[in-house]
């Protein structure tokens, strides 16, 4: 393997990899690692669980995180009477471990009458996803037949009446963080053991839909508001892996996670407010940037350039080493994430290994040759 160039100097850790499928995944993603098509980055050494400390120049999170979002579901028939393709904010078909994601009308829908079936379409807004008028569907609990995402208006028998006041003042535009730093979305499963308490309903809910909404999902969610306010956590958009997220100059939110009802704190979830492209405009909302579970921090995005990387966005410290199981080669591949550049520097030929990693300094490394 050829030498890989590095800038700077840092000390790497001793790492033992277990079988890839032994990695802790959310219940909705109990799949072999070979089915995880998007990179699964496990960052070692980010052990902190401190709440995010905002810059003095950032706007208050509360300005963009307002309680009272209403689920204005409308029951809409599909034009074909059958399933429709679910899409991301740019109009592309969503994909998960099972392939293209669809939803079909069902009698069990809350909005369906005794004689009709439909799909619940959120009547908060229409979006020009990839230039095509689309509406967001939020069935509440994704299952084998229904999933959330955008539906092209051309696939619906009618278009819902809109009730924009249901947004409760959320989703408004905000200034980019200084220099407009850019982050690539890399969806990762959140453990089903990480939960939060809904004050309004007085029930416990899993964070897992905000990592990968379905098993092996190559997309994640952007929300109108976050789960620490009443009616928070309602999704505004499905955002595909590889999409670019531009954080706004707004304070991040970091919340402890709990191991179920009455359970101890077992981690931390950090979200930031920002924008993604629809191909013809921008949508603003909250997205997960990093999650800590049982002392291990995992990034849900990668810094890719623009303005300086933000503090309290990704896992603290050097993003090295990280491990990715590559399904195409059947091997573990290690990465060093330096200044946002994902650089391969070691390939291991087995499904598990113990590797002694030394110091990489200067302009190159021969590791992995």
What does this protein look like?
By secondary structure, this protein is mainly β. The protein folds into two domains: 196 residues, no CATH class; 95 residues, no CATH class. Helices cover 0% and strands 38% of the residues. It is built from no helices and 29 strands. The strands form ten sheets. Strands 13, 18, 19, 20, 21, 22 and 23 form a seven-stranded antiparallel sheet that branches. It has a four-stranded antiparallel sheet with strand order 4-24-25-26, with no helix packed on it. The chain has a four-stranded antiparallel sheet with strand order 5-10-11-12, with no helix packed on it. The N terminus and C terminus are likely disordered.
Overview features:
369 residues, disordered N terminus, disordered C terminus, mainly beta, 7-stranded antiparallel sheet, 38% strand
Between the first and last Cα atoms, what is the distance in angstroms? 4 Å
Q: What is the count of β-strands?
A: 29
| Percentage beta strand | 35-45%
- Rg on CA atoms, Å: 21 Å
In total, the number of domains comes to 2
Q: Please, what is the oligomeric state? A: single chain
SSE string: EEEEEEEEEEEEEEEEEEEEEEEEEEEEE
Biggest sheet, open or closed, and with what strands and sense?
7 strands, antiparallel
Number of helices: 0
Q: What shape does the CA trace take?
A: globular
The level of helicity is: under 10%
Give the structural class. Answer: mainly beta
Q: Low-confidence runs (pLDDT<50, min 5 residues)?
A: 1-54, 318-327, 329-369
Mean pLDDT: 74
């Amino acid at each position: 393997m050829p030498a890989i160039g590095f800038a700077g100097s840092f000390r790497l850790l001793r790492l033992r990899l277990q079988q890839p499928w032994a990695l802790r995944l959310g219940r909705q993603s109990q799949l072999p690692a070979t089915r995880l098509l998007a990179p699964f980055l496990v960052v070692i050494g980010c052990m902190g669980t401190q709440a995010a400390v905002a810059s003095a120049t950032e706007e208050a999170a509360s300005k963009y995180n307002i309680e009272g979002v209403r689920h204005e579901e409308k029951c809409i028939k599909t034009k074909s009477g059958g399933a429709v393709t679910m899409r991301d904010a740019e109009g592309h078909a969503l994909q998960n471990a099972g392939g293209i994601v669809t939803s079909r009308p069902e009698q069990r829908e809350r909005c369906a009458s005794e004689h009709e079936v439909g799909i619940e379409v959120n009547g908060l807004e229409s979006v020009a996803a990839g230039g095509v008028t689309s509406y967001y569907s939020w069935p509440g609990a994704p299952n084998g037949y229904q999933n959330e995402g955008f539906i092209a208006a051309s696939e619906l028998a009618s278009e819902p009446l809109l009730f924009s006041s249901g947004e409760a003042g959320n989703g408004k535009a905000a200034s980019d963080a200084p220099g407009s730093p850019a982050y690539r979305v890399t969806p990762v499963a959140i453990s089903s053991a990480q939960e939060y308490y809904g004050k309004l309903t007085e029930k416990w809910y899993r964070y897992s839909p905000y990592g990968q909404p379905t098993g092996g999902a190559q997309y994640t969610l952007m929300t109108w508001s976050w789960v620490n306010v009443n009616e928070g956590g309602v999704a505004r958009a499905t955002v595909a892996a590889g999409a670019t997220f531009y954080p706004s100059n707004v304070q991040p939110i970091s919340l402890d996670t709990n191991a179920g009802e009455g359970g101890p704190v077992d981690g931390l979830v950090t979200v930031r407010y920002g924008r993604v492209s629809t191909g013809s405009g921008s949508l603003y909302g909250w997205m997960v940037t990093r999650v800590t579970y049982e002392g291990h921090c995992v990034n849900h995005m990668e810094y890719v350039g623009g303005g300086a990387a933000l503090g309290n966005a990704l896992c603290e410290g050097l993003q090295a080493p990280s491990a990715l199981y590559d399904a195409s080669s059947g091997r573990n591949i290690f990465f060093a994430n330096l200044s946002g550049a994902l650089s391969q520097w070691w390939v291991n030929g087995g499904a598990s290994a113990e590797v002694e990693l030394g110091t990489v300094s200067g302009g190159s490394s021969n590791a992995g040759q």
